[in-house]
Design brief:
alpha/beta; 2 domains; 12 helices; elongated; Rossmann fold; 4-stranded parallel β-sheet; binds 6-O-phosphono-beta-D-fructofuranose; 20% strand
Amino acid sequence: MRKRVLVATGGGDCPGLNAVIRAIVLRASRERDWEVVGSINAFDGVLNEPNEIVVLNEKEVAGIHIRGGTIIGTTNKGGPFAWPIKTPEGKWDSADRSDEMLRRLQYLGVEAVVNIGGDGSQAISQRLFEKGLNIIGVPKTIDNDLSATDFTFGFQTAVQEATTAVDKLVTTAASHNRVFVLEVMGRDAGWIALHSAVAGGADVCLIPEIPYDTSKIMEKIYSRFHRGRGYAIIVIAEGAKPVGGEAQYQESNEVGYKNVRLGGVASKLIHELKEAGLETDMRETVLGHLQRGGTPIAYDRVLATQFGYKAFEMVLSQEYGKMVAYRHPNIVAVPFHEAIAHYNYVDPESDLVQAARGIGICMGD
Ligand code: F6P
């Protein structure tokens, strides 16, 4: 019987996931004694009754590198350590099903697991590795918030989408003499906002790492409006906050959803600017999941392919307990504990922030 490597995609979907899956399958197809299987919706496929495990071969993955999303599905709820269960009182609680999952993997003949996911998924990888599972991680997120890797795949595609949005908003802003506030994703990191603001030529860029002061933003807007005419583009990261204030969270009552949901910061900023006396016409655009879906750009396909290839090489060399990472120009393996130790924040002193300031972008301070 052939040895099985099980692939799972966890957390929010991300352009490039399919390119990773394809690379693993294509590389594995050159080894006679290995077979790749996919678990549907992260590890739910292993834990569901009956299980949902699919064999992935060359035919299944043909052409998928150009498709967004993930052909094996994903979830950012629950997981083997916090499986949602309903109590007899009808309330939701969670159960640790990790030991059961390891038994199920053994029963399925799984020799190794490749877990493609963000920091939450890689924290699960670390715990499963500590329990003895042969597991390898592949970093994924449009947020680029994993410090162990120079870039995660999906990030550049998200930046491209956000930049296209800035380009389009400029035309309406200029025609109507308006201020447009574009809200982009990124959780607690301002990478997407910073890159798209620089690429799109925004006037103001607000990121979680630099709390903003509305008076500084207004100064910048006034300087852009002459005799009542002009326009301005503000790119704001969903996790941005005012000096002394908090990020804007939304309630989520979805079962098993662990993340706090960010969102609404663009309309909050408009409200704050109005309160502060800004009379200009202002509109908000929340880019939302449009920056996370769709076709990965070439850069992300290449990075994802390299990650998938490397992950399978690590299976062959039994380099378990590690996550694939990009450290220019190499693709390396980093122990999980190191990979998840630090969040990847934008450094306010970094060259890119300096360049943004240097060309006149107001960073809100
Ligand atoms: O982590 C990726 C991400 O897209 C964040 O930028 C965002 O805050 C979050 O996921 C949104 O998640 P959901 O799919 O639950 O709306």
